[in-house]
Specification:
heterodimer, A: globular, B: 131 residues, two-stranded antiparallel sheet, 9% strand
Chain lengths: 331, 131
């Protein structure tokens, strides 16, 4: 089978889901940047989930759970997504071929471990990866993976394996495409609503979410035993979640700053541009934390969990003041 | 972060790929900058990989000493741990722990071996011994 959607343009993005949302909507005539897709779906957050283990460590997320970004596109663009999952892998592959033949570009959810074009050292069992299939050449699918710089190819059997991986958040062959888009421009109202939602998340009352979640993580870090070998791995794990897992740097803080700059244009609120700069500085604070942690991991500095905890508490306080100011800016 | 502060020293775990970072250009706008990575992200990725490597090696020693089955070795070698193996196979953790017993493992029916092999992307014959 040979079919290529010629009009589709691959875009390189920081994060898979916001990248897919941006490429897919732009392809369908609603131009939206990755930062706008990310901000508009109110995807920035913080959560420390000690009861969900990820590689033996608590889940530390700097964003909302998977699918939040795609679902967050529905209201602002008055759109409908068509989602489909499959029990039978062969059926799931046939359906993908049908949709490609009809000229669709199709979003799919996969495991990162089974994608052959991923660098070997980056292949972990993570089931909520998103990418776009925009064509097929012989047995190879043509893939626009937002976290890859260039378009990729993937053989059918490998893609099937990735789409039907089992485990936590199993993709079950999920594929999706927009059925209709009722509105192509981002409105002032949608931007303000999304900002208010992010403020509510970050300043909310749940002790493991938002600013309170950062304090909680800081307390946990402060109690780490410097003599215990795995304590350093714990600290490294935080930095990995913050920097390595496609966040655009500083746990999505720089990406959200980019959103705030765009939001300033749309809403006509110059204050948002000032706040974007402030968030940029908070992002630098996260980078300093990462740098300090790595110096300790490398043994260039004595491992001092208390010092790291102080830095995290500081970040929490700065974010608290920031989101209070953001709340005042959009009322 | 400014555009010229985006790490470009290189990160060998990225296999030559570049990842997107957002940074401030000279006009103060946040823009996309492809990054080759740097020491910070490389260190924490290698740390996570080293830990898996360590667990794999310890499991290998235990297999050689007859204290565990090759299943445990392959679990770590394929970047899984007990909770994850339980999630991908659908077997309870205590049941998998029983399969770490070499005698019990030797008596496992082909169907269960096949399932373990499938989720790890290896053959059932590979699963039965160390590589």
């Amino acid at each position: 089978m040979n079919v290529i959607n010629e009009k589709f343009r691959h875009r390189h993005a920081a994060h898979c889901e916001s990248g897919v949302a941006s490429s897919m909507l732009s392809h369908h005539g609603a131009p939206v940047s990755e930062a706008m897709a990310f901000g508009l779906s109110a995807a920035m957050a913080f959560a420390y989930l000690p009861f969900v283990k990820f590689a033996g460590f608590p889940l530390i997320a700097f964003r909302m759970p998977p699918k939040a970004i795609l679902k967050g596109m529905v209201k602002p663009f008055k759109m409908r997504f068509h989602f489909e999952t499959f029990r039978n892998p062969e059926k799931g592959m046939r359906r993908l071929d049908e949709l490609l033949a009809e000229g669709h570009v199709v979003g799919i959810q996969t495991s990162a471990f089974w994608l052959p074009y991923f660098p070997e050292d980056m292949r972990f069992h993570f089931n909520a990866h998103n990418l776009i299939v925009y064509g097929k050449e012989g047995d190879d699918y043509l893939i626009s993976d937002p976290v890859a710089e260039d378009p990729q190819r993937c053989a059918a059997d490998a893609l099937q394996r990735a789409r039907f991986a089992t485990g936590l958040m199993a993709p079950k062959g999920l594929l999706y495409y927009p059925e209709s888009i009722g509105q192509s421009a981002v409105t002032d109202e949608a931007v303000r609503r999304s900002i208010r939602k992010t403020v509510r998340t970050m300043l909310g009352p749940i002790p493991i979410v938002g600013v309170r979640g950062i304090h909680m993580l800081a307390n946990k870090v402060g109690k780490l035993d410097p003599k215990e070998k795995l304590s350093l791995n714990y600290v490294g794990h935080i930095v990995r979640m913050q920097e390595e897992i496609g966040t655009g740097g500083a746990g999505f803080r720089f990406l959200y700053a980019a959103f705030l700059q765009e939001a300033a244009e749309i809403t006509g609120l110059p204050e948002l541009r000032v706040l974007a700069e402030r968030l940029n500085e908070i992002g630098d604070g996260w980078r300093e934390f990462a740098l300090k942690a790595v110096r300790m991991i490398k043994g260039r500095e004595a491992f001092d969990p208390k010092q790291l905890a102080v830095m995290l508490h500081g970040q929490a306080e700065r974010e608290k003041e920031f989101f209070q100011a953001l709340k005042r800016a959009v009322v | 972060m400014d555009v010229n502060e985006v790490p470009q020293e290189g990160n060998r775990t990225m296999g030559g790929h570049r990842r997107v970072m957002y940074a401030k250009d000279k006009d103060g706008r946040m823009v996309i900058v492809p990054s080759r990575g740097g020491e910070v992200d490389e260190t924490v990725t290698l740390q996570a990989l080293d830990r898996i490597q360590e667990q794999t090696e310890e499991a290998r020693q235990r297999v050689l000493a007859g204290q565990t089955s090759p299943l445990e070795y392959w679990m770590y070698a394929q970047r899984l741990d007990l909770p994850q193996l339980s999630q991908v196979t659908g077997y309870w953790q205590w049941r998998i722990r029983r399969h770490f017993n070499p005698q019990r493992f030797a008596r496992l029916p082909e169907k269960i071996l096949q399932n373990y092999a499938w989720v790890m992307g290896i053959t059932a014959d590979q699963l039965k011994k160390l590589p």
